[in-house]
């Protein structure tokens, strides 16, 4: 950084102290460290300051000061992202804007089935506040105890309930946003119909803070189900799982809220590192499906549907074995198997992760073809494939051969494996990022697979809204 640039950044930091209070402008290395590294430890950045505004007006003040002093800003929620979207670069010239102090629930309207929350509210707290009002906020993911609504919206988070309720975009009715000029757009309208022009809300959702900073949102609520019933089904292939999904949807209709696919190796890995979570069947099976119904009538009604479904699936040879949870504890144990897969992977060692989506009908072919291509390129690799089959989102991960040097495996094979996987995703009409966002991890890959027209349209939107390029530069677009 040049002397003049350094002086400008120092002036910016001093002005921020006046605007939001010196206690909330962090510059000491000990205080800023946790904000400068992403959750996976993949990216480590530097910042001239970490700013912690308390409300929307203070966020707007910070943005106006950034424009005045030409300082780039990196918005950050719970810092649980998996693509490096909330980590500054290594120049030390950017400032992190942490939204953790914007943590108020502004309103809860049970008749409109909405809750208005600030960007720094923890996802689990939104779920709790909804439950206290006998409502359901259905967005649910592994990081819900620490991720924030602002981050969920910035990445258009998915999770386990997308099949029935949709992802973060479908759950949001309105936004409050601080623009790159430091103006406040109040779009906090709890309307389900509003045809009055361009849909600005959807423009900011999924933009990862590159077009403005989300400071609050109106989110949809749903009635609490009278009962939830969970089951595990054992099948021999992803193709059988697709047929079973179609059968399940025919039997259950809108009651189906979860349909998770897990390879047998995934669950063996969980059992290896978490012995208390045992493999649920006596014999091995190629694939396991975790499915859940949410019923507005009764548990008995949901269980009766499940029993008819499983009987038909067994008779037709789609399912080799099945077990229905008898109580809440057993249901929780089933979900623990699914949720411990990423933890077991981490215990097993470094691996190459992919968060991809393909049309549901193509999942079987994608897995067959891509598994074969990777095995041919690198014999001995272990495939850890799991995800939200009901909405076409797979976590398609590649573990190093057993006993090998995982770090060397990553260094040598990550790029060629990514190319195999992403080429296959593209061939099957999919997306290289389903719910984690692009961040800085997939920025070049996205440009490679998007059409030139699509890239130019995105660049035009960015240039129109953020002409100075100060909003989270180096993310989503170059």
Explained architecture:
The chain is α+β, with helices and mostly antiparallel strands and 478 residues long. The protein folds into four domains: 3-98, Uridine Diphospho-n-acetylenolpyruvylglucosamine Reductase, domain 2; 105-223, Uridine Diphospho-n-acetylenolpyruvylglucosamine Reductase, domain 3, CATH 3.30.465.10; 227-331, 2-Layer Sandwich (Alpha-Beta Plaits); 349-427, 2-Layer Sandwich (Alpha-Beta Plaits), CATH 3.30.70.2740. It has helices at residues 3-20, 29-32, 56-69, 123-132, 149-154, 162-165, 168-171, 200-204, 238-252, 264-273, 299-315, 328-339, 341-348, 363-377, 406-427, 443-449, 452-465, and strands at residues 25-26, 49-51, 73-76, 95-98, 105-109, 114-118, 135-136, 172-178, 184-187, 213-220, 222-223, 227-235, 256-263, 287-295, 321-324, 351-352, 355-357, 382-388, 393-399. Strands 12, 13, 14, 15, 16, 17, 18 and 19 form an eight-stranded antiparallel β-sheet that branches. A five-stranded antiparallel β-sheet has the order 5-6-10-8-9. Strands 1-2-4-3 form a four-stranded mixed β-sheet. The two termini are 21 Å apart. The mean pLDDT is 94. Its cofactor is FAD.
